[in-house]
Amino acid sequence: MPKQAILYLSHVANKTLWRAYRRLERECSGLADVYFVSNLNSENIPPELKDTFTITPAKRAALGHPSRAGDTGWWMDTAPSYTQIIRSGIDQAILAFRKSKPEYDYYWIVENDVEFSGRWSDLFRAFSDNASDLLCTSMHGPETNPTWDWWKSLVWVDDTKPELVRCMFPFARFSDRAMDAIIAAGQNGVDGYYEVMWPTVLHNRGLVIEDIGGDGPFVRPGNVNRWYTSTLSSQNLSPGTFVARPIRFGRGWKRNTLWHPVKRPFMSYVLSRLKARMLQRRT
Fold first, then answer.
1. Tell me: the pLDDT tens digits for 25-38?
2. Is there a contact between 177 and 133 (Cβ–Cβ < 8 Å)?
3. Any idea what DSSP says for residue 153?
4. Going by C-beta distance under 8 Å and a sequence separation of 6 or more, which residues neighbour residue 101?
5. Residue pair 34/131 in contact by the 8 Å Cβ criterion
6. Using an 8 Å Cβ cutoff, are 37 and 53 in contact?
7. Which of 38, 46, 70, 107 has the smallest number of Cβ neighbours within 10 A?
8. What domains can you pick out in the chain, each with its CATH number?
9. Angstrom distance (rounded) from CA 245 to CA 236
10. Cα distances (angstroms) measured from residue 170 to each of 148, 160, 173, 204
């Protein structure tokens, strides 16, 4: 049986998030090692995060991606609405975990605003015999959504014209060789917003990529709209259960379905956003 890790990825910790993590840990016992992974913007670890697996700026910098040195780059000018996402190093935190814990065959990502209206183990077991290098959501190419702002962010390092692919990563699974291919590509100068860079690198390196559900071209027939829905032609992928926006303050009624983004409790979300804005102004 492949050795798997599940990364419950967050930058904060509160009672609601710990309950969600404990549920994930409990329901996946025996299937995978589950980690509460904290992505920090400082080497100082807050007391409330001392019991988590922390990813600090030093660990992200150790990946050796030249374009990310100092957390500056192309994104600052091209898409200011995503500046906070990129500066926080969410993508780099996932890769840094692989460097810190290289013993796993597969790495699952569950961001803290993802919820599943079923038993987590049922979802993970559904893909236990699946050997794809990447499993994710809303996978598609430019012909499906040509006006998406982030296609133009990709920086390729040779004269070939790669076949572009986009997907979402709040819930995803990577093989060990997929993680290593992405890390190596970044070290060699490939750059771009990770929703397009990562699947494009893997697809053009000949690794197997697959959408877990929805209705796009990368979905297996038996999984069409099985685990989530989205609208691939929409900038925010909405309407659907697993989208970029709008925000939900609770999951929906449909069983065995992935929901994103779910921000609760409401006041904790509002306060965390205010704190992030204050920190951004100081830097």
1. 999 999 999 999 99
2. yes
3. G
4. 5
5. no
6. yes
7. 70
8. 4-282 (3.90.550)
9. 5
10. 18, 30, 10, 22
Q: Among candidates 105, 123, 107, which has minimal Cα distance to 115?
A: 123
Confidence check: pLDDT of 283 > 70: no
pLDDT in tens, 109-149: 999 999 999 999 999 999 999 999 999 999 999 999 999 98
Rounded distance between C-alpha atoms, residue 180 and residue 17, angstroms: 29
pLDDT for the residue 220: 96
Peptide bond into 261 cis (omega under 30): yes
Q: Specify the amino acid at residue 38.
A: S
CB 200 within 8 A of CB 162: yes
- Percent helix, strand, coil in the chain, to 5, is 35, 20, 45
Q: What pLDDT was estimated at residue 159?
A: 85
**Collapsed DSSP state (helix, strand, coil) of residue 70:** helix
- The Cα 170–Cα 241 span in angstroms is 13
Evaluate whether 175 touches 212 at the Cβ level (below 8 Å).
no
Which is more confidently placed, 270 or 84? 270
For the whole model, what pTM was predicted? 0.90
Question: Using an 8 Å Cβ cutoff, are 261 and 236 in contact?
Answer: no
Name the 3-class secondary structure at 122.
helix
pLDDT at 44 over 80: yes
User: Largest Cα–Cα distance in the chain?
Assistant: 50
Q: The tokens 């379905």 sit on which residue?
A: 257
CA 176 to chain centre: 16
Q: Which of 187, 188, 127, 134 is nearest to 165 (CA)?
A: 134
